[in-house]
Amino acid sequence: MSLRNYYDLFVFPDSEEDIHGIVEYAVLLELKAVAIAQSFESPEDVDKFRKKLRKLLRGVSVKPKIYVAQYFNEENPQILNKKINRFYRNADLLIVQGGVLSINRFCFENNYVDVLLDPHEGRNDSGMDHVMAKLGKENNTTLAISFKPYLYKYGIPIHKITQKIQRNLMLANKYGLNTIVVSNASNKWELRAGRDLASLGYVANLSLERTIKLTSENPEKLVHLIKKRSKSGYINENIEIIE
Amino acid sequence: MKLNPLPPHLRENQRYIVFEIISNKTFAKKEVINEIWKRIIRMYGDVASSRFNLWIPYNLYNEEKKTGIIKTNNLSVEYVRMAIATITEINGNKVIFKVHGVSGTIKSAKNKYLQKTTTLLEYGDIA
Fold it and tell me: By three-state DSSP, how is residue B16 classified?
């Protein structure tokens, strides 16, 4: 048993039946916390989902810490902005699917977006440049890389994806952008142990030290932010009411 | 006539990766070992995977507990770890490969990690 804690901050179950299996396997794989993401229609659905989760997992005695994340998949930054303003007080994490260049840029410029997932998705280039990396560092946006393509693809697609990930990790490393690796699991069979997820960083040319941080210290920064936000006096990163 | 063993300063540093398979079914040793080889060669190619100095001891795979050991050199541990993490099924049955730890000798790998594996059967005991 390792002393480090490992996290998987993006799990996207297909249905509610998968959630129980995901929690069970997260314990087996020694994950400290898991963030379950859904595309909720309204902020009230987030609270209803939390109550459902509590009911579903009532009988489970050992489970990891579970966070609820709102997942956005938009092509228009203005529509995305409106949706973010509705959800940022309810969901623990706001995760945006990358791919469209304007969305990638918007996420790195915006304080409220917590995680940008796979900026290279569906693109011929890496989806990210040095300007965005700098902006992301200033606005505390985390770059997330999904492990899922490596489970089902091989050959040229994997070659191209790995090239783009290498480029993005190099930029993130240079400009100090927080980076994590996530499983993007839709059921329990796609989950992986934290240390195994992190090995993606080594294959993409990171040093061993930074590789290990991809699923341990880097996600922990997000977890600390979630805990801070859940306090009653918290308004934003720079303002907090202390009674 | 036998080859002389290499002197210590010319030998590669070995690492032993202890893994466990999480699944609903048990598998024969041959199936598991073939799947691991297939995946590593598919992922890294014939030439690159030859540099890993890979060996999967047949007698160290326990079919009941679904645990085994992979030998590699010290520079290739993360590559092998990544490759086995990408294995999703064996003979059509869903699996998850979990690496429990890495050690420098087989004896310490057995003592430290093989005795501490958890399986689906033991899940109820974790509480």
Answer: strand
